[in-house]
Structure of Beta-lactamase class A:
Amino acid sequence: MYYTFAMRKIFLSFTLVFLSLLSFGQRPSTDKKLESKIKQLIQGFRGDVGIYVHHLKKNKEVNIQADSIFPTASIVKIPILVGIFDKIERGELQLDQQLIYRSNQKYGGSGLMQFFQDSTEVDLKTLIGLMLSYSDNVTSIWNQKLAGGGGAINKLMTDLRLVHTLVKNSQTEGRKSDWERYGWGQTTPKEMADLVTLIREGKVVSAKSSDQMYRLMGNMFYDGRGLSQIPATVKTASKTGSLDDVRNEVILVNAPKGDYVFSIFTKNNADKSWGNTNEAEVLTRKLSKLLWDYYQ
């Protein structure tokens, strides 16, 4: 009797451990009601759209073309951020280290550093802040080099099992043809949402580095799209990306009733205008409001 009881006890213990592991790694189920609402919302959009939503507490998701590849535009700056913090973790870079800006680094497009005077002294944390908050192109290229280049960043993404998330600009070796097709980088809506979630959960580089990255991603200057529909008192981490026919955004919301993350990526957009009335930007605001109202 003792042997039988002991064996049953051991079996029960292993069963409980096995079930807990299954629960921990359980795939999200589809929120059919929300999926229907989002499909109605995107009807008639003049372009290609991919949307991924994941309520982390409920472990429910919506995936609408979220495994399709899209140009990242400036959202590529999140993988670059990871590359910088990998170097910091290794002791090869420091947030307070001083660097010198040279006028020959000037690069057009968004950002502020292109207007700095030659020989301006700046620290690494400022480079990161400008890259994220103001989507600064000069500091983004600089940070990519400091991180070891596109190849090093791409390896980090592969290690995180984000196999479609790649830096592909002209400065990344062997990526010229991809650069001509996707621009600075490529990803999927799901992979980018997953990357932000991994940072939120302390699973990128290290818990300490993830915490610092998450703080930096909470200071967005460009807040007129999805962020505009979320109360200012609620913590968020986000990034936008834009090209003439591309509008993207990823946001993780620390909402009162549980964290949720969503990403919306668009390409081949008929509306190539710049401004708040752009069709894709209007859609992004509507999606963000829908999600906030639905979850709260």
Q: What stands out?
A: Residues 31-295 form a domain with the Beta-lactamase fold (CATH 3.40.710.10). The longest strand covers residues 48-55. The chain has one domain: 31-295. The radius of gyration is 21 Å.
